[in-house]
Fold Cytochrome c oxidase subunit 2.
Amino acid sequence: MKRLLYGLMVLFFAVPLAAADMPLNMTQGVTEISGKVYDLHMIILYICCAIGVVVFGIMIYSMIYHRKSKGAVPADFHDSTKVEIAWTVVPFLILIGMAIPATKTLIAMEDPSDAELTIKVTGSQWKWHYSYFNEDVEFYSLLSTPADQITGTETKTETYLLEVDKPLVLPINRKVRFLMTSDDVIHSWWVPAFAVKKDANPGFINEAWTKIDKVGTYRGQCAELCGKDHGFMPVVVEAVSEADFEQWLKDQKQLTADAKAAAEASLSQTLTFDELMAQGEQVYMGRCAACHQPNGAGLPGVFPSLIGSPIIKGSVAGHIDIVVNGQPGTAMQAFAKQLTATEIAAVVTYERNAWGNDSGDVVQAADVNSGGAPSDASSASDKPTPVTLPAELPATQPEVEQVVADVVEEATPDVVMDDLSMDELMAMGEQVYLSSCAACHQAAGTGLPGAFPALVGSPLVMGPVEGHLEVVINGQPGTAMQGFSSILSPQQLAAVVTYERNAWGNNTGDAVQATDVVGHGK
């Protein structure tokens, strides 16, 4: 029996002692904090092994020496005050012994004070944006694993899905502070070697920090389910010496200056249609295909199709505006800082001529720089006429109301105020709904139970038009419903409300016009 107990003790204590060299154990990392986390992990492991030795030792001893075949007679007792106290006090002391080092480690992990370098980390579907404070250096970091490896036509490397085009470069021996946020959904920036894992929430700033001890390349990834391409959002950090880091900063600033000069030069360049289509296809496959699909078909109810899309078939200026500035309230990002004017011109040209769209439009970098206005002056601008407010408002309320009415009338072009037929409203409304509303309420208006309400037979849709307009224009506080007054024009707002009130069997017969939107709330 003694040999058995000794064997158990050796087994239970040999496991944690050998764990440091086991590939399945937690790694020690390359920062002071990661070392503390590793030590805390090993302390807890030792405690658990000690508890295991005691508990299983007593169990095995009892089964051997107190079995029925040896004539053991069960004891007849109800309870013991000493035992009750023991099994309450001992676990309490064990928990205290575990909590003290754990609390010290957690406090150290949450202390970003006295940082020597601050970096803003912004997550978006599906890339990371890094901005170095006070250094005028920023860039996007995207997955660079070849598509052939992802599709399985080539052998996968050891760094499969853990390689990027531009890694985050950090100096060793400096405390680096991270400010985490997101452009769209919740992401999580995670590098195991640093013991850093922090959520990036839209509209919030979370803090983390690290101080790297060793030069090297360290890999991680987004640790939050952030969408269909969650697994294609890696993190790669290059830790370099302080001298190399300073040189890297100088090189990046020079590259930025060269890129600006090249962008200026590109405004006077004219690429052929074939050159634009070839470059546009590369940009589209690298930046757009994840949402809109390689064949441009999109994902119904989530990402709109680009085949015969109203955006594609509409004005070039409107198409460029969405690519450059994005579309608030949707997953469409702004690519003004992600792509050059030439790349934007190429991808717009490609989208307008691929998959049978065949618009024949050829967009140049100069068109992008001018906000989409064609190089020849034959096309009219889609931008509304600027409105000038009076220097001083009149003192009386009626006069103030008249001034406001005049401003509204001036700000609303005549074409927008024209009444449209039901068919025209429904056609426009469907386009607006699919691009701005379907991501939440679904293409069929069924919503997502518990998250986004259905619009089919909804009390809001079937109720008064004024109430429906109020929610669409100003949103609904306390919910995910945002106000679209600054996103959609009065005509678009009227069209989408008309569509919602008459689609999917709602059939209210209501035809809302732009004048109803402008006059809402008066």
Observations:
- The beta strands are 117-124, 127-132, 137-141, 168-171, 176-182, 187-191, 196-200, 206-210, 216-222, 234-240.
- Residues 373-397, 407-416 have pLDDT under 50 and may be disordered.
- The first helix runs from residue 2 to 19.
